[in-house]
Amino acid sequence: MNQDFQEITVEQLSRVIDLLHPCMDDYLYVYDFINDFYYISPHAKKRFSIPDNTFHDVVRTHELFVYPSDIGMLQEDLNALLAGERSFHNLEYRWLDLERQPVWINCRGYVVRSKEKALYMVGCINEIGAKQKADNVSGLLGSSSLQSFLYKISAPFPSGFFLRLGLDDFKEINEKLGIEYGDMILRQTAECISKCISSEQKLYRVVADEFLILDFHGGTYKEAGRLYKTIQQQIVRFVESNHYEAVFTISGGILETEQITDHTFTNIMKLSEFSLNEAKRQGKNRCYRFHGKDYEQFLKRKKLTQFLRQAVYNDCRGFEAYFQPLFHAGTNMLYGAEALMRFHSPEGTMISPGEFIPILEETGLIIPVGRWMLQQSLAACKKIVAQIPDFRISINVSYVQVIKSDIINEIVSAAASQEVSPSNVIVELTESGLLESNPHFTRLLKKLKENGIRLALDDFGTGYSNFHYLNDLRPDIIKIDRSFTAKALANDYEYNLLDLISGMVHTLNLNVCVEGIETEEERNRIQNLSPDYIQGFYFGKPCPYQQFTEQFVK
Ligand code: C2E
Ligand code: MG
Ligand code: MG
């Protein structure tokens, strides 16, 4: 650079700064080494914790507004400049704003010398966040920077990957240890990740507690997996060095660029978000590799959720109640019917309850749909009871209905308003739901007994069947699930087990219903176990009310 600059005085430069500062957002400064004096654009006072825009004792005064852990780095750089090792200062570090929160800045300056002696440094400070949309918590570039970066790359993307990382249960850290502590964890996580990536990889903070690493240099899936592991270990090390004050883990979703067909920023965000969510859904603290098939499945489920919502909004249009007969095993006389829900999607297909019931439960929609189903079942029951007085309607109730709604009062009042006697009603609850020792269940069981409504324990033999519960709960009927029936029919050991179980259930004076009998041969073998009730395709498949009455009631 032209050494004539030594002719310009600090006073003159200060006046130029005064002249220019209304025209710019950045901050111009001059640092006079001879008089240990600093002058910065006056508007810096409105942004940073500086005592004034002019001050002496420059290094010590900097300690008042530079983020404490960055002071060492700044001093080192200044020493190198003063020692004449270089003349250009270019440092990214943090200043404290008026609320003493760190703000990432980039400070550049040129040192003017006279005969090797440093006279002053003149330069400019700009906020990285303001210019490049980086966030001040982690200092990383944000999603808008990623967006503009991707915008410049023409499709298809070079081979490589996106690795989206997210802290597991970060909300808990914020809640338990406070937002500032949470910010510290995010900063430390950003540092941990930064340490692990190569110079060719880019790192962005995409949302609150999520980061995205971009590798457009041929990184393979395996390399992405190794990178994730390294980051995971770095986090463990940090948690240890932080004396386990906050124990947390990180999950990752890998999206290989070859898998991407739609190269828009929005799509990248969607696919990478899906991948990270899958890792979390599969148990957290792990990495998931994007598969198109999983994503299709996810979209299908999302669409089904929308259909179900719409249907509920339209007075449950699309849902239908089916009825499957239950018979007395000894006499083959009709005992009752199990009410089973069906859903006709607007696309014209019938969806199986195995697919849509979990969604209804997850979204809470099972509460309004269950209410609707209850009305349908009781209305059907009322009509059938007129012909078969001891006909029983068996209604499936989900644990969500038990926990989140007043299901028992709903059943009792619906039965009353439909003029169905509670003794004609059976409530089916699954074993797994009941095992939760929850006050809601205790209340439900008590109320069922008080009102004379029978309880059937559904899905028996699919989980950890516990006989103590049978004695405690005293359900009226134990329903042997089809999967257990199928095993018993295929395997002698399971058959003997089922025999033993039904014997024990009978000693407790409870009844056994065997589900899933499909053939005559199966019926005969199951009959030998003396169940009380039987149900299965052999006797009748679930069907609409009209068909049910024609086939089984008339
Ligand atoms: P679940 O309560 O154990 O119902 C018995 C299931 O076994 C029914 O399946 C029925 O169609 C099927 N099934 C009966 N006999 C046979 C047979 O011989 N062979 C075969 N292969 N299957 C047989 P579905 O209707 O698909 O219902 C599945 C599950 O969805 C039900 O199992 C129940 O847990 C749930 N579900 C159905 N409707 C409702 C409802 O209204 N509310 C709630 N909460 N859950 C429901
Ligand atoms: Mg059932
Ligand atoms: Mg069942």
Describe, in plain words, how this protein is organized in 3D.
By secondary structure, this protein is α/β, with parallel strands linked by helices. Helix content is 44%, strand content 23%. It has 21 helices and 22 strands. Strands 13-14-16-17-18-19-20-21 form an eight-stranded mixed barrel, surrounded by five helices. α7 crosses α8. The protein is elongated, with a radius of gyration of 36 Å. The mean pLDDT is 92. It binds ligand C2E and magnesium ion (MG) (2 copies). Residues 458-459, 479, 481, 515 line the site of one magnesium ion.
What keywords describe this structure?
554 residues, eight-stranded mixed barrel, six-stranded antiparallel beta sheet, elongated, binds ligand C2E, binds magnesium ion
Unreliable segments of 5+ consecutive residues:
none
List bound small molecules. Answer: ligand C2E, magnesium ion
Large-scale geometry: elongated
**Overall mean pLDDT:** 92
Sequence of strands across the biggest β-sheet: 13-14-16-17-18-19-20-21
Put simply, the count of helices is: 21
Alpha carbon gyration radius = 36 Å
User: Could you give the distance between the termini?
Assistant: 105 Å
